[in-house]
Amino acid sequence: MLKAGVVGCGGIADGKHVPAILKTKEVEIIALCDILPEKMDSIAEKFELKSAKKYADYNEMLKAEKLDVVYVLTPNSSHAPISIAAM
Fold it and tell me: Which of 18, 31, 34, 78 has its CA 20 to 30 A from that of 42?
């Protein structure tokens, strides 16, 4: 089972990516990150990810969690720094 973190819990996460991730049964979402706590709360409740840890800063999430996969679901302009940090 791959351990994943999701950075960005807005519409694209809610409507597309998180449902697709959960269908694979090979990936467990263990961490959520967003600057808006209510977005993380909504994703956690809707998709029953209550045990996923929540972070307001992706750098903190990357340091604290041992992740195999990081889904970067933020606006395009922030993809590079987040992806580089994750690598």
Answer: 78
The Cα angle at residue 28 between residues 24 and 32, in degrees rounded to 5: 120
Q: If we measure between CA atoms, which residue out of 35, 43, 37 comes closest to residue 12?
A: 43
Task: Encode pLDDT of 37-84 as tens digits.
Answer: 999 999 999 999 999 999 999 999 999 999 999 999 999 999 999 999
pTM for the full model? 0.95
Among the four given CATH numbers 3.50.50.60, 3.40.50.300, 3.20.20.140, 3.40.50.720, the one describing domain 2-86? 3.40.50.720
Which value, to the nearest 10 degrees, does the dihedral of the CA atoms of residues 67, 19, 7, 70 take? 30
